[in-house]
Design brief:
heterodimer; A: 355 residues; alpha+beta; Butyryl-Coa Dehydrogenase, subunit A, domain 1; Butyryl-CoA Dehydrogenase, subunit A, domain 2; four-stranded mixed sheet; 11 helices; B: 387 residues; Butyryl-CoA Dehydrogenase, subunit A, domain 3; four-stranded antiparallel sheet; 8 strands; 44% helix; globular; binds flavin-adenine dinucleotide
């Protein structure tokens, strides 16, 4: 394991490079302009991200990856969440992780967008039953692929390996549902769809745990920035001749939000460290669930409070805080709802052998 | 339009009344959306408004002598329940719920005779012009100014967050008429035709991406001197009385009961209805709703008897709006990834977690925010000292 200094340096570098995608001044005009547009994200920004190696962040050197840890990945995801970045990095990085050493060069380069289509049904992490493979074809369904309109292909985990299918392949139907953040969720139907590439069974659960944790970090970034915007508003907005932030009713709730954000930060950090360290690998799903359960709730708490503390202006589309609310609504329940992760945490920790 | 003959529904048993409403709705609801997750605009809901008016059912809360139903609290609730059950659109009801009761209490005979029938006929569609960019919670800080020039008031300023302002042709406003006194003592209540020269409206897109509220600008707008309600500089007292009505209205279990039905449908759709952990949370909300309804009835009864609504109405307003939000939050939770959908599931407008969640947000902001309501409760009901 790299030492803490190295990790710290990696994090500084990656957060720094993230600034090329997420404007440090918090400007959201790019995010606004992409909403409800064809893809919902910008392919050239996606390529920039790929060029910086982010898709292959978790892949080892020999697979063309950066070989970085979850601490680096979470630091990056947090910055992306703070900027409401719509490019589907987590889902694309998951696809690369599933394909491992077999991931094609043009995919790593961001020329072809391959997204993970792993989910069988709503709210949880089930992936085993949705699609089956038979003689070079795939049949079944997958749900909720974020930003699926911009995908060139999908990486589909099945019990018999990870299958890549082209988005334009015969027998593939993609049904897109617009989402509150201005993107879409794709429902995939496959009937004897030709497979381009099959990769031997990967450790899908481990890959999903990493994506889950990265999503928790994204939500942390989102909540942190939404909170900061709200805190600033409490300082500048005046009613009754005083800044509204001077009213104790709001002060205490701002304090409560801060408490939840710091708990989320600690939980995400502890989970990332558990992934990177020598700790029992069976602790990883436990920690991922712990972090995701809290991050989902924190993001929604901050979203609710942010609107309330902004008053009517928080209920307009013109006000940026609404973009955070809508993103939180869209992302909080992905990669397992808070309830799903609480259940998983309970079942993993109730068996003494699992600890 | 001929005046419908007044028919006293109070002697009916509750069950007979419910069936009468149900039948009426089923037979008469026009070809407009049901279970809409947004407020319909006037051009959309007007047919329903007119049908209710023709039946004499538009203003259940008004006394019969002004064209209302003088309906008991219980029956008003039944009526609302039946409308909700069928998914009837909410009409442009600001004239019915807010201005009508105010005029009945404070208006001159001439004002009652002129305005009340025009609310019922739909000739006048009202908007509420209280809030301004810098006068939200601190409503008494309104700066829109009215100056008497001969037989006319000349109005300058801006209102904002005016719900369905683009549908309205009349707006009641709070305007500053004396700058030299304590802020509450220099405000008057004026009735302004929005068709007058100098009134302009800009719609604002809300978080659900609908053009529901507006900004309204007044630039040397002239209105007749007698479009003042009550005395000059007595607007604040009346506005507060009106806010009491608005708070009873917002305190109606209508929104929460509507949301609870949606929660149940969503729970069935997402297969969590039989999950005991879910059912316990659902039942808790259901009991909250039942108790809310009991509390609500006591306020509607007060209104019907013409008793003043005291500061304790804050209890009703806080509890209903926050219950509505809690229901919507559980719905968002169980909707999984579909919580983020812009369109409802299966094309059923009731299966729409995001819309319910978003629609529930502003109920703790308008009509007095939950924070302001709690401040009032602490000060005026509990008698706690201020800082
Ligand atoms: C959907 C919607 C429809 C509306 N329709 C209308 C309409 O038709 N006509 C109309 O006139 N107005 C309307 N309003 C405006 C509404 O009345 C105001 O939003 C409300 O009065 C709050 O004012 P504000 O938005 O300026 O928030 P602010 O007053 O700026 O409040 C911001 C935050 O500070 C809190 N706060 C303020 N003062 C205190 C305090 N002393 N102690 C503790 N907390 C405090 C508030 O509770 C809130 O959380 C509407 C609003 C909404 C959201």
């Amino acid at each position: 394991m790299p030492n803490d200094d190295e990790v710290g340096e990696n994090i500084r570098m990656i957060v720094d490079s993230a600034r090329s995608v997420v404007p440090p001044d918090g400007d959201l005009s790019r995010i606004r302009s992409l909403r409800f547009e064809a893809r919902g994200f910008d392919p050239s920004i996606y390529r920039t991200m790929a060029e910086m190696g982010w898709l292959a962040l978790r892949l080892p050197d020999e697979a063309g990856g950066l070989g970085l840890g979850m601490r680096e990945y979470c630091a990056l995801a947090e910055v992306l969440g703070a900027g409401l970045t719509p490019e589907p990095l987590i889902s694309a990085a998951l696809a690369c992780r599933l394909l491992g050493c077999s991931v094609p060069k043009n995919v790593l380069a961001g020329e072809r967008v391959v997204l993970a289509a792993w989910q069988d049904g709503p709210s949880d992490l089930q992936w085993r039953r949705g699609v089956t493979l038979d003689e070079g074809t795939a049949t079944g369904g997958k749900q909720f692929v974020p930003m699926a309109a911009g995908a060139g292909a999908f990486a589909i985990p099945t019990q018999d390996g990870v299958a890549v299918v082209d988005a334009a392949a015969a027998g593939l139907e993609l049904d897109l549902r617009a989402t509150q953040d201005g993107g879409q969720a794709g429902q995939l139907r496959l009937s004897a769809t030709a497979i381009e590439l099959t990769v031997r069974p990967a450790d899908v659960d481990a890959a999903l745990d990493e994506a889950t944790l990265a999503t928790a970090a994204y939500l942390l970034g989102l909540a942190g920035r939404a909170f900061e915007i709200t805190r600033e508003y409490l300082v500048v907005r005046k009613q009754f001749g005083h800044p509204i932030g001077s009213f104790q009713a709001l002060q205490h709730r701002a304090a409560d939000m801060k408490i939840q954000i710091e708990l989320t930060r600690a939980s995400v950090a502890a989970a990332a460290a558990a992934f990177d360290g020598e700790a029992d690998p069976r602790m990883r799903p436990v920690r991922a669930s712990q972090a995701k359960a809290r991050a989902s709730e924190t993001a929604l708490l901050v979203a609710r409070e942010a609107i309330q503390m902004h008053g009517a202006i928080g209920y307009t589309d013109e006000c940026d805080i609404g973009l955070y609310v809508r993103k939180a609504m869209t992302v909080a329940n992905t990669f397992g709802t808070a309830a799903c992760h609480r259940r998983r945490y309970a079942s993993l920790t109730s068996e003494p052998a699992a600890i | 339009m001929p005046e419908p003959a007044f028919e006293d529904m109070n002697p009916l048993t509750d069950e007979d009344f419910r069936m009468a409403v149900r039948r009426f709705v089923e037979e008469n609801y026009p070809d407009i959306p049901r279970y809409s997750q947004r407020r319909l605009h006037w051009h959309e809901n007007r047919p329903w408004y007119e049908i209710l008016a023709r039946r004499g059912w538009l203003c259940p809360n008004w006394p019969p002598e002004y064209g209302g139903m003088g309906l008991s609290a219980t029956k008003q609730l039944i009526m609302v329940e039946e409308y909700e059950r069928y998914g009837c659109a909410r009409v442009n009801d600001i004239g019915i719920v807010m201005l009508g009761p105010l005029l009945i209490r404070y208006g001159t005979q001439a004002q009652k005779d002129f305005f009340l029938p025009r609310i019922i006929s739909g000739e006048h569609v009202w908007a509420q012009g209280y809030s301004e960019p810098n006068a939200g919670s601190d409503l008494a800080a309104v700066r829109t100014e009215a100056v008497l020039a001969g037989e006319e008031w000349v109005i300058n300023g801006q209102k904002t967050w005016t719900t369905l302002g683009s549908d309205a042709n009349w707006i009641f406003i709070l305007a500053r008429t004396d700058k030299t006194v304590k802020k509450q003592a220099g405000i008057s209540f004026l009735l302004v035709p929005m068709t007058n020269k100098g009134v302009s409206v800009r719609t604002i897109r809300n978080l659900e991406l609908h053009d529901e509220f507006c900004e309204v600008f007044f630039d040397d707008v002239r209105i007749a001197r007698d479009h003042l309600v009550g005395d000059v500089n007595s607007g604040w007292t009346m506005a507060k009385a009106l806010l009491g009505h608005e708070r009873v209205f917002i305190g109606s279990p209508r929104l929460s009961s509507n949301a609870l039905v949606r929660l149940r449908l969503m729970a069935q759709r997402m297969d969590v209805w039989d999950d005991p952990a879910f059912r316990d949370r659902y039942t808790r909300l259901q009991l909250d709703l039942a108790d809310l309804a009991a509390l609500f009835e006591t306020y509607v009864e007060k209104l019907r008897r013409g008793e003043p609504i005291g500061p304790d109405v804050t209890i009703l307003k806080i509890f209903q709006s926050e219950l509505y939000q809690r229901i919507s939050e559980l719905m968002l939770e169980i909707a999984g990834e579909t919580a983020g959908y812009v369109e409802p599931l299966d094309g059923d407008p009731r299966l729409h977690a995001a819309a319910t969640y978003l629609m529930a947000r502003p109920t703790t902001i308008f009509g007095g925010s939950s924070e302001i309501m709690r401040n009032v409760l602490c000060k005026s009901v509990l008698g706690l000292p201020s800082a």
